[in-house]
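User: Can you recover a sequence for this backbone? Please restate the input before giving your answer.

Assistant: Of course. Working from this structure:
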């Protein structure tokens, strides 16, 4: 298949780097791979695999409740960010004198906060009913003010709101990558390319199930989604003044490819319902030759040679497909 070359943008203002204040605020919530292996839960003795499983179950809970409430994906993404940030400062493992919040409690509260931050509020009753039905895996369960579960979840969310806010230091400013990704598409005049747009959106939606929001800035995740989608759609993005598109967007190629490799781990471990491999599996960059010959999204000028690309080791991560059944403790 021949890659489609995109005309060089003309008459448009080049993308500006993020404002220093916004970049600094987001930077405090970015961690290294080693730091993700030293979270409070892990330091309290919880196995890494168990902690990651609980993170995925909490995020799945957010997604399922959000779909039941018909919330936009941007709100669910913000809730997932709050959930993951909270767990970088609080443990899920009980110890003497400390009783942790259940991961469903944290997830429900994070979603409650996100609906207010993103101005997609739902009535408390609607949120509580959805939480109970998802937690008990019964979408038709009768839940009203006469049931014990209703008041337990209502009181839990209202109590946990202050706890989560304090853990987040009342820093509720989140830059969802969706708008950034769409602005990148518009810059290259590709916002109406359905295949490219849908693939980018799917990548961002799936990234909520990983810890990408703790490893990379929102702009990097947006660029990674465009990189992956461009490869899938066989589209090459043009250079400007001898610079590749990722430099024009103020992103490092190394970070883009590491983010893609982390997502590939998830896609490889989660085959489609028909048993076939995901269409995103080919995103991995196994060696320099393959990267240069097969995965370029950079449309080069005739006199501009390819730059050698250094391959990073993929970040290990996996995905759990389900949420667990049960009620909250106490």
């Amino acid at each position: 298949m021949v890659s489609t070359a995109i005309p060089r943008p003309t008459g448009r203002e080049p993308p500006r780097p993020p404002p220093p204040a916004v970049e600094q605020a987001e930077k405090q919530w970015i961690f290294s791979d080693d730091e993700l292996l030293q979270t409070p839960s892990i330091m309290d003795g919880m196995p890494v695999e168990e902690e990651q499983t609980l993170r995925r179950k909490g995020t799945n809970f957010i997604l399922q409740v959000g779909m039941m409430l018909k919330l936009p994906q941007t709100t669910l993404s913000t809730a997932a960010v709050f959930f993951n940030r909270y767990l970088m400062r609080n443990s899920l493992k009980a110890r003497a004198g400390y009783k942790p919040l259940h991961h469903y409690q944290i997830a429900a509260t994070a979603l409650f906060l996100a609906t207010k931050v993103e101005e997609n509020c739902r009535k408390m009753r609607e949120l509580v009913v959805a939480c109970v039905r998802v937690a008990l895996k019964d979408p038709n369960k009768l839940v009203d003010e006469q049931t014990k579960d209703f008041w337990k979840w209502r009181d839990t969310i209202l109590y946990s709101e202050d706890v989560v806010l304090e853990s987040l230091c009342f820093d509720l400013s989140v830059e969802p990558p969706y708008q950034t990704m769409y602005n990148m598409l518009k810059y290259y005049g590709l916002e109406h390319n359905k295949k490219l747009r849908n693939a980018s959106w799917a990548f961002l939606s799936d990234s909520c199930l990983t810890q990408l929001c703790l490893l990379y800035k929102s702009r990097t995740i947006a660029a990674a989604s465009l990189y992956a989608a461009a490869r899938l759609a066989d589209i090459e993005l043009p250079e400007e003044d001898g610079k590749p598109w990722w430099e024009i967007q103020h992103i490092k190629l190394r970070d883009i490819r590491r983010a893609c490799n982390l997502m590939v781990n998830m896609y490889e471990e989660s085959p489609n319902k028909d048993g076939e491999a995901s269409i995103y599996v080919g995103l991995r960059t196994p060696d320099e030759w393959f990267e240069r010959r097969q995965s370029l999204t950079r449309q080069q000028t005739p006199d501009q040679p390819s730059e050698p690309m250094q391959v990073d080791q993929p970040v290990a991560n996996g995905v759990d497909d389900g949420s667990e059944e049960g009620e909250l403790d106490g």
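That completes the design. Strands lie at 4-5, 235-238, 298-299.
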